[in-house]
Amino acid sequence: MRYEYLDNCVPLVPELPAQLPANASVVILGGGIMGVCTAYELAKAGVRDVVVLERDALGSGSSAKPLGGVRATFSDPGNVVLGRRSLETFERMQYEENADFGLRQVGYLFLCRSDAEVASVEASVQVQNSLGCNSRMVSPTEAAEINPFLNSDALVGASFSPRDGYAQPSLVVAEYARRARELGAQIFEHTEVIGLGASDDGVDIHTQRGEIHADSIVIAAGAWSTALGAMVGVNLPIEPVRRQIGFTPQLAEPHPTVPFTLDLSTTMYFHNHRNGMLLGISNEEEPGFQREFSYNWVDEFNAAAEIIAPDLSHQPLEAGWAGLYENTPDHNAMIGRDSSRPNILYATGFSGHGFLQGPAVGELIRDLYLDRESFLDPIPFSADRFAGTQARLAELHII
Questions:
Q1: Is 267 left (phi over 0), alpha (psi -120 to 50) or beta?
Q2: CB 390 within 8 Å of CB 378
Q3: Does domain 108-162+241-327 have CATH number 2.40.330.10?
Q4: Which of 4, 106, 189, 335 is surrounded by the most beta carbons within 10 Å?
């Protein structure tokens, strides 16, 4: 196994400040997609003394290993809005502002193999299109025309959203970090938070590089957010789960271009990667912080592919990686402000949807911090729903 796809990690930035400032208006804990998007939006809004602390390199946690999908194809209206708004930002930054994110809008294709799945996806398509998306239902025959790998006889129907696709997370993290720095935000890599102490005056942050006092903090550390929240009495229930993907060999002649394709029945998925294919499946894994790559998912993928996309079964893999999903109890994000400690905000627990929602969440946290109305009511995403004080979210398009 060769781990050669290290372009998904953001390189170290040599001009980092030598020491932490003594004080900051806002300290963001976590330098992945949520952290850098939030830093950029706060700095752009004129917030002074914005600091990001990342215990490793920028984008080296969950943001280093996603599939790169960008989509608005969800069933929950809040998720649709977050996905659509982020997609609009990706489009603007790449096509109008010349920020190359490797954005490829090849579409998303959700496969249905039962009448119940068709009915569920049809309802989701109605929600999506009522909120400005361009999804549509397609027949098994049309699905196989859109994606020639598919066995149409195995399908009952599908949905197709041509505006969606995928991008390269490392490029997005690097660009947002660059823009945040230009606006005055300070970003400290290899700075681990060892302890937090909250009071009405703010939060004291202890790191191996020294102390910093923040008027407010934003917990945006993905699967590691639960431990940080516990330091200040904030319950952020997250269960880390390993997810793995593999890459087929690069061909002299590329495969046909296909959408990001996902089978709802088996959770197998695939899309093009350079001249090869990216393959994966959300197989059962014991929760934990294990991030070593293994082949334990391959048999399950092959069994699904034999039915759905036979030509992709039993493919040799030339590389692969493992990363963490940060799953909440209802597999939806926690975005909000702590009800008893208003100087503690959080954006975490995205359960596999973080990269595609990052730009919009940065805006939402900015508006929460500034105590102003935003494009979306964040209350349904509050962590309070796991304390039984409000309804949990129900999202059907989870892989």
A1: left
A2: no
A3: no
A4: 335
Using the predicted structure, report yes or no on whether residue 152 has a pLDDT greater than 70.
yes
| C-alpha pair distances (Å), 328 with each of 12, 58, 84, 138, 203 | 30, 23, 22, 32, 25
Distance in angstroms (rounded) separating the CA atoms of residues 360 and 378? 11
Tell which residue, 329, 342, 393, 394, has the closest CA to residue 371: 342
Q: Which of 140, 348, 142, 156 is nearest to 236 (CA)?
A: 348
Q: What is the pLDDT of residue 65?
A: 67
What are 76-117's pLDDT values in tens digits?
999 999 999 999 999 999 999 999 999 999 999 999 999 999
Question: Can you tell me the mean pLDDT for 265-275?
Answer: 95
Return the CATH superfamily for domain 15-64+170-238+330-387.
FAD/NAD(P)-binding domain (3.50.50.60)
Distance, CA of 160 to CA of 170 (rounded, Å): 27
Taking the C-alpha atoms of residue 230 and residue 237, their distance in angstroms, rounded to an integer, is: 10
Q: Hey, is 123 helix, strand or coil?
A: helix
CB 155 within 8 A of CB 112: yes
Bridge partners (DSSP) of residue 322 are 244
pTM across the whole model? 0.93
**Residues in contact with 201: Cβ distance below 8 Å, sequence separation at least 6, in sequence order:** none
Distance (Å, whole) CA 370 – CA 381: 18
Whether residue 266 has pLDDT greater than 90 = yes
Mean pLDDT of 143-161: 98
Give which of 47, 81, 44, 70 is closest to 377, Cα–Cα: 81
Domain ranges of the chain: 15-64+170-238+330-387, 108-162+241-327
